């Protein structure tokens, strides 16, 4: 008896071509959403096969076609779940440009949602029965024009629907709005060809196959990594996708790891803070019950990937069978759909120890890993099916191996432009380095705004151009200063702090300030704050040669973050300058005059 053949993926240029291809296998599991209705729930699994997913997506496309024509926008204001995935795919069937967003009930992001809706000008909104009532109130409260709401969870009568006559790979599939960590959100225009190319790049990089692999994700589907890893890549590759709500992860992070253990060959992704969160919040008893030997890849897609986090997560779950090589640092951004580079998962992450002085001058000078004074960087791997070069940020000229510069990218996954921002689009997406080869017909390079260097063929991301701390002509990376402060001061909540420079009364140059959330449950006194300032000042001076002007301790949850959970340094600096954090947490050693510049 011959062995069953592995199902082969479609070669179609559109994501919907792939969905239609897998829909011919009606009994194969496609997407599963795991709901946790109460704290003790083991999880309720709601599953759609490929045929069922295709049917639901086409039904939504039919309802959508009555409200919006090809090329118009439909905003997805839905909670995490099967309806979200079906609604996104339904937009693609209808030729309507999807705008993956979130329901107005997501706390702390009302302003961002309103700004994005005003920018994309949707012809309709996709919602469910639970979120629809609040949408009209939200639109009115924000001064936005009312738009029709299409319910995706009520069967009703599905209008007759015919696919648009012509959908080209270069047509717009969706707008991926950036997280806004360094500027106001901008809509990256992603074509059908872009998303399929990036899904294939991810599948090839992680060697994912329809038989034997499953993606498990809690990242929100409106986030670039969540959308590509949990929806696009499974649809292209034909392997199952398991979803859970981000809130369910934050409430009990062990739920994520239990799902990782429940399926074969699991592939998942999370930002750096999530791995620290698991290591600190999952107790030994819960960890002892886990069996993580089936985990294939855990992508750490955050800048920076911290070596200490990798070590803590590995040590916390080594006895559960987690392979050290499963932790896979990666680099990506919305302008490249998402995936850019990934490290190998057949060996533990590569760590490089560098001289901090040379690093501040833009060079990698390698030290011994045991050097206590070195700055440790984690390799983010090699490009996944695209070109990468390191360039001088001012001139665009190529930098040598080991030299820090701006990361430039070119490939089939690079987005087309920013929505309605022609000048910025040409500057960012159409850059032409002076020493680049190729004629006018060659596509331009993407300027990422991120800094990095190549060493032994691997990319090391060092920071963001707009976040650089420049004091006395020397460059310092905020994440390095933040790591120094959180390692030295026990009161500081890990990865909930921002370092930046501000004007200071009585000085001729900017000074360094750190705003940090204190640990939950702590009520620091004035003495605690002054002691924290002294400790942080000494550590920052010894490590970086910088004078810390102020350490502002604020309550947990006060520091602005992006929709993907990263600290938004630019927004934090703006709030600091406006005095929006108040003075209750001030530790500036008695210095005064800050209020004059806010």
Please outline the helices and strands.
Elements: H1 15-22, E1 29-35, E2 44-49, H2 50-65, E3 73-76, H3 82-94, E4 97-100, H4 110-120, E5 124-127, H5 132-141, E6 149-151, E7 172-177, E8 187-191, H6 192-206, E9 214-217, H7 224-237, E10 241-244, H8 246-251, H9 254-262, E11 266-270, H10 272-281, H11 284-288, E12 295-300, H12 307-317, E13 327-332, E14 339-342, E15 351-354, H13 356-360, E16 366-367, E17 375-378, E18 382-383, E19 387-391, E20 405-410, E21 417-418, H14 422-429, E22 446-455, E23 458-464, E24 469-471, E25 474-476, H15 478-488, E26 492-502, E27 511-518, H16 526-544, E28 548-554, H17 569-578
Parallel strand pairs: 1-10, 3-4, 3-5, 5-6, 9-10, 9-11, 11-12, 12-13, 27-28
Antiparallel strand pairs: 1-2, 7-8, 8-21, 13-14, 14-18, 15-16, 15-17, 19-20, 20-22, 22-23, 24-25, 26-27
Helix pairs in contact: 1-7, 2-3, 6-7, 10-12, 15-16
What does this 3D model show about the protein?
- The chain has 598 residues and is of the alpha/beta class.
- Helix content is 30%, strand content 24%.
- Mean pLDDT is 90; it is low at 589-598.
Give a summary of the structure in a few sentences.
The protein has 598 residues and is α/β, with parallel strands linked by helices. It has 17 helices and 28 strands.
Structural class: alpha/beta
Strand content: 15-25%
**Mean pLDDT across all residues, rounded?**
90
Distance between the termini: 77 Å
User: What overall geometry do the principal axes of the alpha carbons give?
Assistant: globular
> Residue share in helices?
25-40%
Largest sheet: 9 strands, mixed
Note the total helix count: 17
What is the rounded Rg?
A: 24 Å
Q: List low-pLDDT spans.
A: 589-598
Please report the total strand number as a whole number. Answer: 28
**Strand order in space, largest sheet:** 2-1-10-9-11-12-13-14-18
